[in-house]
Design a protein that fits this description.
The complex is a heterodimer. By secondary structure, chain A is of the alpha/beta class. Chain A has helices spanning 50-57, 86-92, 114-126, 130-143, 149-152, 162-174, 192-209, 220-226, 244-249, 254-261, 301-305, and strands at 6-16, 23-34, 39-43, 66-68, 73-76, 79-80, 97-100, 180-184, 212-217, 229-234, 237-243, 311-313, 318-320. In chain A, α7 links the parallel β8 and β9. In chain A, α4 crosses α6. The longest helix of chain A is centred in the middle third of the chain and has 18 residues, at 192-209. The two termini of chain A are 41 Å apart. The mean pLDDT of chain A is 81. By secondary structure, chain B is an all-alpha fold. Chain B has 15 helices and no strands. In chain B, α3 (42-57) crosses α14 (274-301), α9 (181-194) packs antiparallel against α12 (223-246) and α12 runs antiparallel to α14 (274-301). The chains are: A alpha/beta, B mainly alpha.
Amino acid sequence: MTEPLLRVRDLKTYFVTEQGRGTARAVDGVSFELYPGETLGIVGESGCGKTVTSLSILRLIPEPPGHIRPGSVIEFEGRNLLTLAPAELRAIRGNQIAMVFQEPMTSLNPVFTVGDQIAEAAIIHQGLSRKAARARAIEMLTLVGFPDPAERVDDYPHQLSGGMRQRVMIAMALVCHPKVLIADEPTTALDVTIQAQILELLDRLQAELGMAVLLITHDLGVVAGQADRVVVMYAGQVVETASTTGLFDGPLHPYTEGLMAAVPRIDAPKSRLQAIPGQVPAATAWPSGCRFHPRCPHAWTKCTIEEPPLLGLGDGDHTARCWLVQEPGRRKPKT
Amino acid sequence: MTLQAWFALLVAFALAAWAVGALRRRTARHEGGRRFFRHPTAAWGIGVLAFFVIVAVAAPLVTSYDPWEQPDIIHLKNKPPSWTFILGTDVYSRDLWSRVAFGARTSLLVGGLGMLVAVTLGTLVGAVAGYYRRWVDAVLMRGVDVGLALPRIFVLLLAIALFGRLPLPVFVLVIGFTSWFGTSRLVRAEVLSVRERDFVAAARAMGAGPGGVIFRHVLPNAAAPIIVSAALGIGNVLLLEAALSFLGMGVAPPKPSWGNIIADGAPYLATAPWTSLFPGLAIALVVMALNAVGDALREALDPRQEAM
C-alpha cells in the first residue's frame, strides 16, 4: 500500500482539571493512519475523545488546561506537526489540512460577509489580492452548490440557514484545496434532509479534489455510507479498526456490537432498541484493565486486571482491543 | 454681534438639527439604529454634540470678535450679556461667546484625541492580555491595577509640577496615557469571552496568525462595549481637562479652553457670574449629551438583543 498521508501515533492529550482534581486523559494513546484519497471514519459516543483527537491534529487544543504529552507523534507527509514552529504550523493549517466544524451556527464570524471569510484563507496562504480572492470565493460557493453565488457572497452569516452555513464552512475549508479535510461531526447540527445533501456534497468534492477525509461522527449510518475504513473509539482509546464492510459484517469488540445494536433498523422486527448499560466513565479515572469491562456483558476476571492490546484477526486489517479476539470461547451467547 | 455671525449661528443650529434627522433616516433600516433613536435623549445628545462640533469648526464664522481681542479694558470689562456681546464680556473685556466658541476647539480636541489615545492603548493592552492569558495577562493586569489605584489627577499634577506647563500635544498624550486602564479591563473581559467562540477556533484552523485572529475575529466582535466606553470616556476627559485648566495647569491662557475660561471668571463670581457660568454650561451640556449618546449606543449594540 502507499505511504500514509497522515500518521497519528500514540497520541495522548491530557487536560489538567481545575482545583487539581487530577488529569483528564481525554485521548490516551490513539494511533491511526490516513491514506491519500480515502475516507476514514472515527466513531464513538460523546466524551470518548473524537473531537479532542481532531483538534490535536491541528494543535488547536486550548493550552492550558490541555496539553499533548511528549512522545505523541502526528506525522503529516513525514513531518511531525507537534514539533513544528508556530509559523510552519500556520502554513499547514487551512492550506494542507483543513477542518469543518460541528456547529455551523457559531463557527462563522458574525461581523464579516461569507465571501470575506472564504477569501481569508486564500489571502493568507496564496497571497491573492482582495479582488482575486473574492472571485475565488464566488467560485467556491458555486462549487458547494450555492444558488446565486455572485449575490450571496455579500451575505452575512445570520442571513443564511444552517445547511447554507455548513456549505460556507466547507467552502472555507476547501478554498486552498487541502490534502486532508477533517470533518468533525459536519452534519450533527443539521436536519436529516440537509445532512444527506451535505454528505453527498462532501462525497462529490472528495472525488473531484482527491483529498483524504477524516470523518468524525457518532452516527454509524453516516460512517456506513461515507467511510472506507473505520476507527472505533472508546474512553480515549482506539478499540477497533476495520474496513467499513469488515466492521459491519462482523464487529469484534463488544462495544462496537453494542453501538450497532443501538441503531434502529428498518428491516428488523419491531422490538425495543438495545442500549449499552451504564455510561462512559469519567476521563479522570478510567477503569483498570479493559476500560469497557464495567459495561461489557462478556467481561471476566482477566478483563478487570489486564488491559488488552489491539489484537488482529486473520489478515490483520481488522483489529480490536479485546481479549475475546484471543479467546472467542468466552463470548456469552446472545440472550 | 454682526448680522453675519447671527446668520452663521442660525445655520449651525439648522445643520445640527439636519444631522440628527439625516442620521435617523440613514440608520432607520437597521434594527440597531432604531433602538438607538428609541432612547429618549439620544436625538438631543446627537444634536447638542453636532452643534458644538459645528461651532468649534466654524468658530471664526459664528463669532464677530477675536477671542484674544480686548476692545476696551476699562469700560467694557465684565459686561453682562447684550446684543453686542451675547454672552457678555470677561474681566479683560474679551467677548465671552468668542472665547467659548474657540474654547470648544481646544476642549473638544483634547477630549476627543485624549480618549482616542486612551481607547487605542486600552484596547491593545486588553486584547493582548485577554488573548494570551497566563503570565502576559497577570503582568499586564497587575500593571493596570497599579494604574487604577493611583488618583489620575495627582499623577497629572505631578507631571506638570516636574516638567512645567505641557505643550498641548503632550498634554493630550499624558491625558490619554493615564485614562486607558478602565478600557483595558473591559476589553480584556470581552476578549476572554470572544476568544472561546467557535469561529475563533475556525479562524485558527484556517491558518490565521495571532494578529489576524485578534484584529479580524476577536476585536470586531468585542467592539460594542469599547465604543460605549469611549463615548462615556470623552466626557470624563473633558472634565479632567477642565479641572486641570481651572487649576491653571492645563491649557495655557490666553488660548481659551472651557476650563480656563471658568478659572478667569472665578474671582468675579459674585459680580459677573456669566464668565464662569456659560463655559460651565457648555461642559455640562456636552458631557450630558455624551452620556446620552453612550447610553443609547449601549442599548443599540447590546448583544443580548442582537441575538434575537
